[in-house]
């Protein structure tokens, strides 16, 4: 998977390298993300921009930490051959102020929280969901925990050992 990164309204930092590491970790726990044909964009932006995107595309009039916009259905992603032209997996947008506030509230680094949210967003792009059922939510959380462990980041949920 190739990740195109754009950074606006975030403090100085190597956000591109973090996104690449998170993408690599996510592809270890969700192998369909390892397909070299896949392209994803990650936008590091402001609460105001994410609020606008959330209102426009999700009919939710508030900012949130991360938004994912999948462009492939899970069945299409699973059937995607490894040879062929690039395929857009989808887009992710991260809201700086919300991410920073949440990291502060959890007493974790902004980098660790951001890595978690990128992995979370990538798993959504891969067709995983945590809203439909508790079983799906637990499976998605387990993948997040495993991917973060590959990056040396502690379990963000703090209530399981994976």
Automatic annotation (TrEMBL):
EC number: 3.1.-.-
HAMAP family per the UniProt record, alphabetical: Endoribonucl_YbeY
Compartments where located: Cytoplasm
Organism expressing this protein natively: Parerythrobacter jejuensis
Class of enzymatic activity (EC top level): hydrolase
Record bears the keyword Ribonucleoprotein: no
Domain of life per record: Bacteria
Family the entry assigns: Belongs to the endoribonuclease YbeY family.
Gene: ybeY
GO molecular function: metalloendopeptidase activity; RNA endonuclease activity; zinc ion binding
Function description: Single strand-specific metallo-endoribonuclease involved in late-stage 70S ribosome quality control and in maturation of the 3' terminus of the 16S rRNA.
GO cellular component assignments: cytoplasm
Protein name: Endoribonuclease YbeY
Principal location: cytoplasm
SUPFAM superfamilies: Metalloproteases ('zincins'), catalytic domain
Keywords for this protein: Cytoplasm, Endonuclease, Hydrolase, Metal-binding, Nuclease, Ribosome biogenesis, rRNA processing, Zinc
Biological processes per GO annotation: rRNA processing
Cofactor binding, per record: Binds 1 zinc ion.
Cofactor section: Zn(2+)
Positions contributing to Zn(2+) binding: 120, 124, 130
């Amino acid at each position: 998977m190739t990740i195109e990164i754009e950074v606006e309204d975030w403090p100085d930092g190597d956000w591109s390298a973090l996104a690449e590491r998170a993408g690599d970790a996510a592809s270890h726990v969700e192998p369909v993300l390892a397909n070299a044909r896949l392209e994803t964009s990650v936008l590091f932006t402001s609460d105001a921009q994410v609020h606008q995107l959330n209102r426009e595309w999700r009919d939710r009039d508030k900012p949130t930490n991360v938004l994912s916009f999948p462009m492939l259905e899970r069945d299409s992603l699973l059937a995607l051959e490894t040879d062929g032209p690039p395929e857009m997996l989808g887009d992710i947008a991260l809201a700086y102020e919300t991410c920073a506030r949440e990291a502060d509230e959890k007493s974790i680094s902004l980098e660790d929280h951001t890595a978690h949210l990128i992995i979370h967003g990538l798993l959504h792009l891969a067709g995983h969901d945590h809203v439909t059922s508790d079983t799906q939510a637990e499976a998605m959380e387990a993948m997040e925990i495993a991917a973060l462990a590959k990056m040396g980041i502690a379990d963000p949920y703090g209530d399981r050992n994976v």
